[in-house]
Amino acid sequence: MSKIIEKKKQNDVHSHIDRAYSIIEGNLPRNYVEKVYEILKDDKTLTDGIIRNTKNRVHQYPSSRINVLNALVQISKDYAVELEKLEQLTK
């Protein structure tokens, strides 16, 4: 009798990162670097280059800088809400 080994399903983290980049794309304000600094004020190793490289997806899957990616998604969502309010006010 043979043993059937069930393979564990791996979480597809890459699809979540891809989805995060689709949210960021085209929805960031011009001052997004300063806003990332405001959100991640405790990270002393953070630089403008790291933020821009993460935003521009220089590294395919920046797992070491997932905090920057999360901050960019948060900023992008907040900016989209503000744009929607502006559109409602200008109708």
Overview of the structural elements:
With 91 residues, this protein is mostly helical. Helix content is 57%, strand content 0%. It contains 4 helices and no strands. The protein has helices at 13-24, 32-39, 48-55, 66-89. It is extended and about 70 Å long. The termini are far apart. The model has no long low-confidence stretch (mean pLDDT 85).
Main features:
91 residues; mainly alpha; 0% strand
Count the beta strands. 0
User: Treating each run of at least 4 consecutive H or I residues as one helix, how many helices?
Assistant: 4
SS-derived structural category: mainly alpha
Biggest sheet record: none
Poorly predicted regions are: none
Question: Whole-Å distance between the termini?
Answer: 72 Å
The chain-level mean pLDDT equals 85
Form type: extended
Using only C-alpha atoms, the radius of gyration works out to 18 Å
Percent strand equals under 5%
The string of secondary-structure elements, in order, is HHHH
Q: Helical amount among residues, as a percent range?
A: 55-70%
Brief characterization of the structure:
This protein is mostly helical.
Explain the layout of strands and helices.
Layout: H1 13-24, H2 32-39, H3 48-55, H4 66-89
Helix pairs in contact: 1-4, 2-4
